[in-house]
Amino acid sequence: MSNVVVVGAQWGDEGKGKIVDLFTEHADVVVRYQGGNNAGHTLVVNGEKTILRLIPSGILHPGKACVIGNGVVVDPAVLCEEIEGIRARGLLEREERLVVSEGAHVIMPWHKQIDVLREGALGQARIGTTGRGIGPTYEDKVARRGVRLYDLLRPERLRAAIARALPWANAELERLGGKPVDGEEVYRTYLEFGEKLRCHVRDASLWLDQQIRAGARVLFEGAQGTLLDVDHGTYPFVTSSNTVAGNAAVGSGIGPGALGRVVGIAKAYTTRVGEGPFPTELSDEVGQRLREAGAEYGTVTGRPRRCGWLDAVVLRHAARVNGFWGLALTKMDVLSGFPEIRVAVAYEIDGERRETLPADAETLARARPIYETVPGWQQPLDGCRQWEDLPPNARRFVERVEELSGVPVVAVSVGPDRSQTILRQNPFA
Predict the structure, then answer these.
(1) Kind of pairing between the strands at 270-272 and 306-308
(2) Which of 21, 41, 200, 333 is catalytic?
(3) Tens-digit pLDDT profile for residues 301-311
(4) What are the residues facing 370 on neighbouring strands?
(5) Is the pLDDT confidence value at 42 over 80?
(6) What is the pTM of this model?
(7) Whether residue 232 lies in the annotated active site
(8) pLDDT of residue 5
């Protein structure tokens, strides 16, 4: 099978965008299948930084088709802005290079307002949402009162969809102390968005099926990490969609038999944004050093990320629920200079050793990491391009990650640029 799914193996921010950008060289189509503009992918090519929130990372490769699937929730204002930025750089030479599913749900103005107000009302019990309206949009989707992209292309359907959703939305805003939304103003604004996006919107499921039948190689790009999955993550401190590999089929409208290999992306340490348990978190000078050396600040929100040592318990959980074929280990260069590096191999919970991830966040919050210490290395890694270029202790660290996770490491990232990657095995080969 020539198709590949890329999934975050931690709490997000693992460097998926860079690895997708790298693998896109071997693919024909890149598909984003879940999440929204609450996730940002940072790409550095020839020293130039690009931040993408909705458009798949493969857009930087001329001639490659990119798809936003039905499982994504789309803020049309953000998407239109992103398209204009990409077009201005000459990266969207043909409109048909970008396909947006007509069945994707649309983030409406009330979703963002409700998101922010609800989070504020939670106080100390807040989840850590980005306030982009992602959760409320998925909520409306499940409640069958959502607005979909094809509604934006048909005036009568858009008016009916707004009329269906607005009474509930304004009642909720009133309850939360927010400002009611003017349906007529929303109608006019979103009708304009529909016209701007019309050339990209189509039946993405049918289009993808045709491409696969014609022999195209497809790369499926996840947004947030496995531990933020609404079913398999640290609930309730999770996102509002399924982030695991299985959702690549549902969120793009193809059968699971078309998925192929799954590559998990993990940092050489661990980070998390927002609230929720984090067993290996470091609230000391080591954690601050990781944050500064790794530039660990949110791509979308700018929030500082919580930092800690690598957690092999998390990696084993992610490997199981996704079915990893291989791991890509990112930000190895950040660990240069540490005399020793620690890896959590198990937890101690209520006096007992545990090597698997607890199903509930309350139990995980009581977990204390059981560490294994491995020798570090002093040499900078940013110039390494072959496996043999890595210092011996860096190679031993990677090999130990393979042993602890049970998954071979097929790529090692030693810097932010596309070229700063050691590809040990090509998933498309």
Answers:
(1) antiparallel
(2) 41
(3) 678 999 999 99
(4) 346
(5) no
(6) 0.92
(7) no
(8) 97
